[in-house]
């Protein structure tokens, strides 16, 4: 499985469950989200990943893990 996808959903699920984040906060379309869920090799652009990290209020360590996973 796509390393980025695993890392993204680990962080996303935790923040959604805690109420820290709503889907609409991410600024991604339902189409992009569906592609992330269904397409094995789907990746956001590096710029989009950095934007998601900010919108998700990730720590420096979480941001590093997610951006590194995007490069694998």
Summarize this structure briefly.
The protein is mainly α and 72 residues long. It is 69% helix and 0% strand.
Structural overview:
The longest helix is centred in the N-terminal third of the chain and has 16 residues, at 3-18. This protein has one domain (3-70). The protein is mainly alpha-helical and 72 residues long. It is built from five helices and no strands.
Could you list some keywords that capture this structure?
72 residues; mainly alpha; 5 helices; 69% helix
Give me the secondary-structure topology.
Blueprint: H1 3-18, H2 23-26, H3 30-38, H4 46-55, H5 60-70
Helix pairs in contact: 1-5, 4-5
Strand content: under 5%
Order of helices and strands: HHHHH
Radius of gyration computed on alpha carbons: 11 Å
Task: Give the strand tally.
Answer: 0
The assigned structural class equals mainly alpha
Count of runs of 4 or more consecutive helical residues: 5
Number of domains: 1
Average pLDDT across residues? 92
Distance, first to last CA: 11 Å
Net shape: globular
Helix content: 55-70%
Unreliable parts: none
* Main sheet makeup: none
């Amino acid at each position: 499985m796509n390393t980025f996808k695993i890392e993204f959903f680990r962080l996303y699920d935790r923040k959604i469950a805690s109420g820290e984040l709503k889907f609409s906060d991410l600024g991604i379309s339902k189409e992009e989200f569906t592609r992330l869920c269904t397409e094995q090799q789907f990746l956001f652009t590096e710029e989009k990943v950095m934007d998601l990290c900010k919108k998700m209020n990730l720590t420096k360590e979480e941001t590093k893990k997610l951006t590194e996973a995007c490069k694998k």
